[in-house]
Structure formats: C-alpha cells, structure tokens
C-alpha cells in the first residue's frame, strides 16, 4: 500500500445513479484524512476543476465502492527504490578540456 500525500496524482471515478461510473478523471490530492480517504481537486473532461471531499482511495485490488472513489495513477503505482526515487538511472558525464600550453 502506498500512503497518499498532498499533490499526488490520482484517477477519480464519479458514480452516477443509473449510469454507473464516469471516469477516469485527473485528480490531485489536496488533503489526506487517512490512508484510504482524501480530498481532491478533480479536472473534468472539459478541463474544469472542482473539489471532491472525503473520497475513498482504493488500492491493492480493492473492489470499487458504490460511490465516488479514486485510485493511484500508473506512475504512482510503480515500485520505488528504498531511497525514494522511481528507479530511473541517468549517467552524467562531464568532460573538462585541458588548457592549451603556450
């Protein structure tokens, strides 16, 4: 289980009675109540932001509830290394020119 943090990107699913779930929509965690409940800033399909409060965060193959919920996006679900990085390795090489001798 990944602990939610402010600013983390999630996928939000809105439940509409008689129609089922609408989504995913982009969401950003604005407040963490606890590991399975967050407040979100959600961006709808028209790019309009709105708030959603007390949203259930489903993780680890939890079944979706019969109401609004969110899940971690694919990047957030990637395993991280113990140092907190996402595991991308980049090698930086700096070449220093020797000064010319007169």
Summarize the entry for a quick read.
The protein is mainly beta.
Walk me through this protein's architecture.
- With about 100 residues, the protein is mostly beta strands.
- It has a domain at about 10-75.
- It is about 5% helix and about 40% strand.
- The chain contains 1 helix and 5 strands.
- It has one helix at about 75; strands at about 10-15, 20-35, 35-45, 50-55, 70.
- Strands 1-2-3-4-5 form a 5-stranded mixed β-barrel.
- The radius of gyration is 20 Å and the shape is elongated.
Main attributes?
102 residues; mainly beta; 5-stranded mixed β-barrel; 5 strands
Strand order across the largest sheet = 1-2-3-4-5
Separate helix tally: 1
Largest β-sheet summary: 5 strands, mixed, barrel
What percent of residues adopt helix (DSSP H or I)? under 10%
**SSE sequence, one letter per element:** EEEEEH
Proportion of β residues? 35-45%
Shape: elongated
Radius of gyration: 20 Å
Oligomer: single chain
Strand segment count:
5
Q: Which structural category do the helix and sheet elements fall into?
A: mainly beta
Which segments are poorly predicted (pLDDT under 50) over 5 or more consecutive residues?
A: none
Mean pLDDT: 84
